[in-house]
Amino acid sequence: MWVHYGATRLARGELFEVVGFLAFLRETVLGPLICHREGLLLQGVRRLEALDAERAEAMRATACGYDREAAGKALLSCVDLYQRWGAESGLAFERNRDAQALAVEFLEGVVQSTRPGEARGD
Q1: How many CB atoms lie within 10 A of CB 77?
Q2: All domains of the chain, ordered by start, with CATH?
């Protein structure tokens, strides 16, 4: 599951990887969920602010700079938006709920172990 991938990179202090992964999630998961809701082709995040300003504002929480704490919060925001918007979408997602719960629990543990302003996972 993608949550575990992001959490593992965060735990290792691979912040460039996490920042890039967050952009990937916005473009390939969250943006297309918004487009689907609006009945449009899945086009990433292009013109998202004009398409759905409220959800675009919510997606701001998924962006961060090179900071471990901010990256952890952004990953948690991705999880939250994916779960909410995916449930509202009406799309049939194959989910392993047990694996999902374990991955989110792991991510939460990694985020809780982060000190404010910490750039690396040392």
Answers
A1: 20
A2: 2-112 (1.20.120)
- Tell which residue, 61, 72, 64, 66, has the closest CA to residue 30: 61
Question: Taking a C-beta distance cutoff of 8 angstroms, is the pair 51, 32 a contact?
Answer: no
Residues 21-43, mean pLDDT to the nearest whole number:
90
Rg over alpha carbons for the chain, rounded to the nearest Å, is 14
- Most confident range (mean pLDDT) of 3-17, 32-46, 80-94 is 3-17
HSE (CB half, 13 Å, CA atoms) of 67?
A: 11
State both tokens at 98.
């047990």
Residues 6 or more apart in contact with residue 79 via CB below 8 angstroms:
3, 104, 107
Query: pTM for the full model?
Result: 0.86
